[in-house]
Amino acid sequence: MTLPYSEIVMEHFQNPRNVGRIEDPDAKAIEGSPACGDMVAVYLKVDEATHRIEDIKFESYGCASNIATGSIITELAKGKTIEEARDITWQEAADALGGLPPIKMHCSVLAVDGLQAAIQNYEERHGLVKEAIPTDEAEVRRRLKHVMNPQVGLDLIRTKLVQNVEIDAGTVRIHLDMPSEHQFANNIREEIVEKIEPLWDVQIVEVIFTT
Length: 211
Ligand code: FES
Hints:
By secondary structure, the chain is α+β, with helices and mostly antiparallel strands.
């Protein structure tokens, strides 16, 4: 089956702009699609005084539509302030690509979600969160869905490694069903801290292993 991709989609797929990663970014996010299991990472460099996005890069582990959308949203976002870039919608991205086959809409949603999550990460890291909703267990678990257990290639929630989440006055304690001498224990701990620590009301993240 050949999907009716527009010429713009094909051009961005074949020559994607702003591909790669930024070392030492001011913000980053990795988003996964529940629809297909693919992932996209977005990195930002932002001018602290003006909030303007000076550089943006993305890595896609998705399909042609996802790569093309990642390419177009980085073009749309570059040079905008984070407040302006926050308003970029998947509809805008899809329109800028000359449309996408309906079956591929979730791929552009994934790329735009990646951009929005990176902007949120910037706001959290820089104390700019407007709607200061207290962190709850659901939010912690949502973020833990982005931490992989490299042994099986699935996230911590799906592999049922998270036994318990406690939130207490700025401390988040995550109990894992995994011994501390597990070969990936340190990597997993680092990834958890990286995902949970930027939350605006979290000061300490503790990862507790079974032994
Ligand atoms: Fe997964 Fe397109 S099918 S991103």
